[in-house]
User: Which sequence fits this backbone?
């Protein structure tokens, strides 16, 4: 029977204090950090009192790193050490990057992901992104904590919806490297939909057209009473505002006969191209002066008509994914209630015109296209940190690209189809090709094409120890699991004998946890000591979070779902953990955490069971009032 | 696992076991269930609870997907009655049906090569009409517990689904 609960003397029964969590839009051109403060989401300003921090990182020979507007201002002086638009390199190889056009960097080929040779050494795109995130972290801590002691509970980092597993994993690695706790990777159009939907109390089917500096996404969402259900997503993770700059720069080089440009000239041309592009949004024509090497001075002009003619093919390229997404969602254009425009590049009039012509309605531009993603991420971060809000929001997102394995003849067998709602798990059985075959190699790929060579290779692994049988007798079940971040893990098992292999799909391009730990400690004078203290601090935070979670679960359901003996076992494990957390051995805390986990597993299952029963029988007020 | 986790997909959403599903009721039940079990709702819970939440959320996504689609729902109802539709392993189909499928494929391919939008639209409409008729047959067969007839309908619908994919691919090719 249910007993009333009374707290220990001195122990607070009040709800936990507000946890500080931020949303970060790690953009190709600019990055932003936002948080929910006194009930509403706002973008936090940087040290220049600006909401947008340019995603530009400059490396100096003495190891100094400069991020933001100062680095942006000097990019033409030191182009090869000043990395702009690094997001386009995340999870990408040298061959992919070569397609972006002429770039003023010393690119280094490396397995999995391209590297950049700088004055401060070879940098991976993950390193460069982590340097941007570190600055945003400091900015958030200063704005939210001031001089108070304390820590951020974590961050929601946004990624383009069309990012594949390699790009997502690289982003998560960068955040960890910057010392951020990643609450969730959130798709940018979904983040924008949250901000838009909550602001406008929108209901129905909406399209979010998100053209950023380097990536393009289209997502179709159904909004129903705080539930944001993504029906389909599509895009091009190598198409964005930068391509318009490239088109202008290439045009000028042709017109003015600039056959070979060095890195500085290239950077100058791209900068002037961007400036002119932005001015053409408000003016019918624009011109700018550029001084190239050897003092050659050029007056560069462009009219809006010329610009539109030059770049209309790029705009048209965005409409193909839009049509695919509608087809995947089984929707006609008439069924879309509104089209939300996101990303700075959607300010261009011919982009607006093309999108509204396709949908047959004016586009929705009432939110700042630069800020809306960060604001949505902040709202989600606040909810994930456990701060109760009145919005009661739930996101149901999808995987953008199909996942499969290589089969005979270089063909792809799809296991998880694109647009499957996350989290998802799918299994597929395979069998041996030869008599007595005892091992099987798996090649995991992502993409829509039928041939392995046209898809992205994610990982390779082997299942060994299959008992010798005749060809076709073994039954190998391969299971793909994709979590709410859109990240894949794969396991394989011979069902007769139970021989198993499991991999997190990381090795071919991602960083192992050990590598991240090594990178975190590299270069510090007291590296080893710092690493130990950090591990202890992390375990203590985890211990206190877990104790709080168990205590609130016990308060809510302990009396109903547990008998005295079960409750005592959980309380004993909790006390053991609290005791371990007062010591300074991270391993002891970790094992006490595991023991508490084991002690609460059955309780957690019963609680979930009850929640499920409640979902089906409990009547929500809005269900009662609608027919 | 607990009692609720192992119940059938219909019971999971509080619906009667039947081919005729109230789409609105299914959608509402799915959303209410995800509101309780989605990993985002348990981000600050213990690890055990997060793991269970992920399993439940995965399970309800899978059940929702199956109940939403008439062919998957039909296949699942047959499975509940111990009938395997064996679409991967048993390739024997009525000859007339296979011949009509080949004709369809050829029509789609020639429309694609001719970049004939109107022809593709027409094929799409015909495919949807054929699919609707087969779904009707499936409903009737399941209603009178005629498992062999229902099984054949599901197997035919599998071909129609593949055909629909080819029409989509051809339409995509014309977009570019």
Assistant:
């Amino acid at each position: 029977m249910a007993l009333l609960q009374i707290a220990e003397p001195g122990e607070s029964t009040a709800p936990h204090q507000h946890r500080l969590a931020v949303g970060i839009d790690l953009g190709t051109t600019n990055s932003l950090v936002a948080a929910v403060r006194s009930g509403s989401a706002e973008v936090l300003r940087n040290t220049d009192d600006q909401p947008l921090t340019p995603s530009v990182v400059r490396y100096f020979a003495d190891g100094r790193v400069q991020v933001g507007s100062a680095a942006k201002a000097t990019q033409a002086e030191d182009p090869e050490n000043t990395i702009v638009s690094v997001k386009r390199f995340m999870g990408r190889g040298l061959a992919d990057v070569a397609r972006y056009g002429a770039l003023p960097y010393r690119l280094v080929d490396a397995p999995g992901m391209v590297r950049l040779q700088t004055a401060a050494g070879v940098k991976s795109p993950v390193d460069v992104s982590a340097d941007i995130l570190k600055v945003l972290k400091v900015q958030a801590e200063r704005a939210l904590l001031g001089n108070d002691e304390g820590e951020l509970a974590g961050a929601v980092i946004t990624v383009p919806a069309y990012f594949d597993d390699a790009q997502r994993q690289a982003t998560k690695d960068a955040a960890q490297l910057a010392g951020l706790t990643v609450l969730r990777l959130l798709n940018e159009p979904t983040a924008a939909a949250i901000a838009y939907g909550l602001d406008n109390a929108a209901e129905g089917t909406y399209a979010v057209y998100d053209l950023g500096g380097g990536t393009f996404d289209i997502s179709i969402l159904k909004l129903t009473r705080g539930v944001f259900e993504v029906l389909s997503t599509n895009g091009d993770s190598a198409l964005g505002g930068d391509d318009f700059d490239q088109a202008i720069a290439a045009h000028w080089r042709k017109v003015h006969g600039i056959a070979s440009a060095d890195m500085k000239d290239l950077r100058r041309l791209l900068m002037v191209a961007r400036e002119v592009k932005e001015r053409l949004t408000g003016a019918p024509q624009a011109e700018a002066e550029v001084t190239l090497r050897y003092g050659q001075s050029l007056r560069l002009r462009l009219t809006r008509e010329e610009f539109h003619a030059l770049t209309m093919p790029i705009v048209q390229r965005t409409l193909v994914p839009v049509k695919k997404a509608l087809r995947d969602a089984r929707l006609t254009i008439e069924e879309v209630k509104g089209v939300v425009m996101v990303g700075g590049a959607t300010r261009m009039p011919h982009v607006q015109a093309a999108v509204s012509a396709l949908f047959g309605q004016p586009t929705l531009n009432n939110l700042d296209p630069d800020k809306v993603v960060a604001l949505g991420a902040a709202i989600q971060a606040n909810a994930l940190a456990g701060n109760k809000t009145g919005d009661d929001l739930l996101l149901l997102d999808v995987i953008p690209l199909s996942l499969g394995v290589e089969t005979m003849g270089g063909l792809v067998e799809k296991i998880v189809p694109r647009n499957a709602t996350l989290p998802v798990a799918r299994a597929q059985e395979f069998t041996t090709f030869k008599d007595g075959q005892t091992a099987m190699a798996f090649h995991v790929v992502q993409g829509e094409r039928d041939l392995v060579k046209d898809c992205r290779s994610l990982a390779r692994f082997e299942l060994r120890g299959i008992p010798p049988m005749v060809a076709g007798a073994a039954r190998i079940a391969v299971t793909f699991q994709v979590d709410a971040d859109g990240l894949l893990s794969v396991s394989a098992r011979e069902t007769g004998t139970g021989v198993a292999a499991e991999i997190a799909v990381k090795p071919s391009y991602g960083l192992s946890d050990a590598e991240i730990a090594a990178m975190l400690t590299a270069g510090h004078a007291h590296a080893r000591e710092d690493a130990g203290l950090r591990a202890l601090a992390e375990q203590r935070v985890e211990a206190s979070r877990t104790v709080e979670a168990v205590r609130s679960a016990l308060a809510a359901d302990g009396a109903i779902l547990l008998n005295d003996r079960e409750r005592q076992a959980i309380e004993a494990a909790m006390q053991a953990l609290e005791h371990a957390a007062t010591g300074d051995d991270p391993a002891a805390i970790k094992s006490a955490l595991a023991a508490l986990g084991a002690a609460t597993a059955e309780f957690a299952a019963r609680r979930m069971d009850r929640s499920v029963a409640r979902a089906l029988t409990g009547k929500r007020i809005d269900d009662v009032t609608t027919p | 696992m607990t009692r609720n986790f192992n119940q059938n997909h219909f019971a999971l959403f509080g619906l009667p076991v039947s081919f005729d599903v109230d789409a609105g009721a299914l959608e509402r039940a799915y959303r209410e269930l995800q509101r309780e079990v989605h990993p985002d709702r348990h981000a600050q819970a213990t690890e055990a609870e997060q793991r269970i939440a992920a399993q439940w959320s995965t399970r309800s996504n899978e059940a929702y997907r199956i109940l939403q689609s008439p062919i998957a729902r039909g296949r699942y109802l047959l499975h509940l009655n111990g009938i395997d539709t064996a679409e991967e392993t048993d390739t024997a189909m009525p000859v007339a049906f296979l011949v009509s499928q080949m004709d369809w494929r050829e029509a789609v391919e020639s429309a694609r090569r001719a970049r004939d939008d109107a022809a593709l639209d027409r094929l799409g409409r015909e495919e949807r009409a054929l699919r609707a008729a087969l779904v009707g047959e499936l409903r009737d067969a399941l209603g009178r517990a005629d498992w062999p007839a229902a099984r054949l309908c599901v197997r035919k619908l599998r071909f129609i689904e593949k055909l629909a994919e080819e029409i989509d691919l051809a339409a995509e090719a014309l977009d570019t």
Q: What stands out?
A: Helices of chain B lie at 9-12, 23-37, 47-68, 70-80, 95-113, 117-143, 147-175.
